[in-house]
Write a structure and sequence with these properties.
Layout (H helix, E strand, L loop, with lengths): L1 H14 L1 E2 L1 E9 L6 E8 L3 E12 L2 H7 L9 E13 L9 E7 L6 E9 L4 E9 L8 E7 L6 E2 L8
Parallel strand pairs: 5-10
Antiparallel strand pairs: 1-6, 2-3, 3-4, 4-5, 6-7, 7-8, 8-9
Length: 163
């Protein structure tokens, strides 16, 4: 009984993600039950921008056939668009940007993550979707950008507009 409770807790933690997101679609990919999941992501510090993220979700029968029970592939794609008036809060201006979303893609180690980076020289928000692993990180990634040029952007952090 105790092992079952621990296993159930690990599965729950693996399903948890960071950031506000909502599944908006799923496409059945094959007869095994594999799916392409589509989620709408909201950046907690940038109002008026919605990112749509797609990723592959392996079905039980595919996991059994491949012998890899606890991991989804690293493939993902992202597209971000302005969906309302843009209001930018206290964002990180560092070259590393900041993580706005993460979701477990394996029982313990692999995560699908989205980072926001502000390109000051081009006045653009860049969103990067990538897979993160402690060892043998994936080179599979996708980017999308929101140009702020010519937009009526409200900077909620008084120091940000001077950056």
């Amino acid at each position: 009984m105790r092992k079952a409770l621990i296993f159930a807790s690990l599965l729950f933690l693996a399903a948890c993600g960071r950031g506000e997101h909502e599944e908006v679609g799923e496409i059945k990919n094959d007869l095994l039950g594999n799916e392409v999941k589509l989620e709408a992501l909201k950046d907690a510090k940038v109002e008026g921008v919605t990112c749509h993220l797609s990723y592959f979700d392996r079905a039980f029968w595919d996991r059994v056939a491949k012998g890899n029970w606890f991991e989804n592939p690293s493939n993902s794609s992202i597209a971000c668009r302005q969906t309302g008036p843009i209001k930018i809060g206290n964002i990180d201006f560092d070259k590393n940007g900041e993580e706005v979303f993460s979701q477990q893609q394996s029982l313990i180690f692999k995560q699908l993550a989205v980072r926001r980076i502000y390109d000051r020289a081009n006045n653009t928000l860049i969103y990067v979707a990538y897979s993160r692993k402690p060892v043998e990180g994936s080179a599979k990634m996708s980017i999308s950008s929101i140009a702020l040029y010519g937009q009526n952007v409200e900077w909620l952090n008084a120091n940000a507009s001077a950056q």
